[in-house]
Structure formats: structure tokens, C-alpha cells
């Protein structure tokens, strides 16, 4: 190529040198990194090759890789989730299904909570039901609203997803199987069995036998013992004559109440004594624990007139056989009247 000169001011330059066109050998080579993404004939990008991820593949996983084609099928641990797995993870579900068929125990008269933790509830509803043998299921709550007429049942929602059922003043009739249900199709359910620990209350005689009726002569001393047995059972224990608390009775006099807690906290015994009984002391005597757990004995007080009628009737009807003043005394009086 002949040189071509151009005068620029006081300088003369070769135009061919100043405006040289780059040749193909002078072009920079493509980066090997760009070679790692290839376009197929259909124009769809091929999947990543194993060597493209060598720095992120765990050695144990790399040994188990099967080259079954392009895409994520080469990496089993990166496979897409199935629809079931997607719904299981992202649809309405219980956070802790291991709590199904669990049990909760509450003391009589106390408050208890049954938890139901739900994730991704969306447009579904949470309901609580109670089931007991021989009874139809009882709907307690729907969402945050109490459906049953018993105000002791309420939903105490705890963020972010605990639809907690609260029961106050629990009694023995509240025992049963409780279900937390999601309005999915089919319904999802977890179950909790509620037990109410109620102490056993009994009024016994001197031999420890349960009493329902007891007979005393006038001017004698009444002596009753109330036994309370059960975990956590114990004082306070009250005695009632009819509806009148005896421990607050300052008019009658001669009233003694002594309560002793058993070792180990397994219960208590309460002793009631009334001296110099009169016919006005007859009636119902009740041993009362908190939350209306009671046991009642009917006490009869027989005066001299009752005994005289008994003796007069016995001469006509034959001598009665009885030990002390027991129930046979009344039967004899009724038969001879």
C-alpha cells in the first residue's frame, strides 16, 4: 500500500498509519465464561452443566449425581416440589401435627387453654368441637366467635396463628375429646383430650364407711368426718347446716371444726363436732370444697317424745330389733302409726 501523506499544520503524517482498520486476527477472543451458556437450535438456553457448579456442589452430593439430561434433573436435591408438597407447605396446615391425640389435665375450677397453631390459613376457618361418648358433637367456636351458649368457652387468638380455646372454671362435665378443625376439603383435624382432676369428697362414720343418713339422740354430740382425696386436694373445706356456714355461726355455740392436711398433699380430713344436740340441729350437713364440690348427709335428732312413741308402738307391733338409733327406728314408727 502506497503511503498517503496529510499536512497537519507543521506536521506531515501517513494517513494509512493513523487510520488503520483492525484485522480479524486483532479482535479480542470471547471469554471462556461466555462459552458456558450456549443457545440451541430452538433458541432455548441449555441447562447448567455440572462443571459450572463445581464450587458449590458438596462432594457427597456430587458423587450421587446422575447425568439424565439437561435442567435441574441433573441435581436431585434441586428438583421442583410436587403439587402435593407445595400445598402441604404453603396451604392451610397445622404447625405441629405431633400434638394430635395429646392430653391436657386441669384442676377442678381452674382455667385451661387448648392450643391450635395454624399456618397459611388464608380464607379458611378454624372451629373447635367437643365430643363425648353417647352425645352428638358440640360446636363450641367458629373463628373468633363463641357458638355455644356456655360463656366459659372463648377463643383467645395469639399472633401469628394460635387459635387458642380457653375454658374457665372447669368442672367434671367438661371432660372429653376436643377437636380443632380447618375448613379444608377434607377437613384437617387435631385432637386434644381434656381431663378434669376433681377430688373425691365423702362423709364417713367412725369406721370409715360412707354416710347418707345419720341418727342421734337429743343432748348427744354430733361427730362427722369429711375425707377429701385426690392430687392437689385439700383446704379450704367448709361445713354447712342447710345453707348456713357453721364456721361462721356464733349463735349456736358448741361447734368445733378441725381440718388436717394429709402428708404428701394427697388430700385432707375435716372433723365436725356439735355438742348438746336439739331437734333444731336436724337437717342436711354438707362438706363443701371450692367450686361447688360437695357431699351431704341427712341428720336426724330424736328427742324423748320420739322414743316414747317408739316404746308405745313396740308393745303392739312386737319388739323392734335395732342397734342404737338406726334407720329401723323410723320404719317401726311408720308401720305402727
What attributes does this structure have?
mainly beta; Immunoglobulin-like; 6-stranded mixed β-sheet; 5-stranded mixed β-sheet; disordered C terminus
What does this structure look like?
By secondary structure, the protein is mainly beta. Helix content is 12%, strand content 35%. It has five helices and 22 strands. Helix 4 crosses helix 5. The chain is rod-shaped. The C terminus is likely disordered.
Provide a short characterization of the protein structure.
The chain has 337 residues and is mainly beta. The protein is 12% helix and 35% strand.
Give the helix/strand class: mainly beta
Q: Percent of residues in beta strands? A: 35-45%
Helix segment tally: 5
The CATH superfamily title of the largest domain = Immunoglobulins
Order of adjacent strands in the largest pleated sheet: 4-13-12-7-8-9
Count of discrete structural domains: 4
CATH architecture of the largest domain: Sandwich
SSE blueprint:
Layout: E1 5-8, E2 11-14, H1 15-18, H2 59-63, H3 83-90, E3 93-94, E4 102-107, E5 112-114, E6 118-119, E7 126-131, E8 138-142, E9 145-146, E10 153-158, E11 162-167, E12 176-182, E13 188-197, E14 200-204, E15 213-217, E16 222-229, E17 238-241, E18 244-245, E19 255-261, E20 267-274, E21 283-289, E22 293-302, H4 304-317, H5 327-336
Parallel strand pairs: 4-13, 15-22
Antiparallel strand pairs: 1-2, 3-6, 5-11, 7-8, 7-12, 8-9, 10-11, 12-13, 14-16, 16-20, 17-18, 17-21, 19-20, 21-22
